[in-house]
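Hey,
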Amino acid sequence: MKRRRFISAAALVSLWPRPAWPQQAGRTYRVGVLMPWSKDDPENQPRAQTLEAALQEHGWIKGRNLHIEFRWAAGDGGKADTFAQELIDAAPDVLLAT
């Protein structure tokens, strides 16, 4: 069920209309992503890649006009709280938590 929830979230990101984030020349938008899983688990890397690919299809290119900051909580609620606060403090343009 977790995979379905992630795919749904990634689909929603890919459906965001471009006018919702008007692109400005030279501006890099920042996205904070909080993942509850472990970064080292090979099953989880495709989730991050799917998100990046969906954004790229709509003109949001990592390194050009987009910076994505991932935090991986690895199932640890304490880490998740800490990482959530870090991402909030960084004030990204968009925050995605799964």
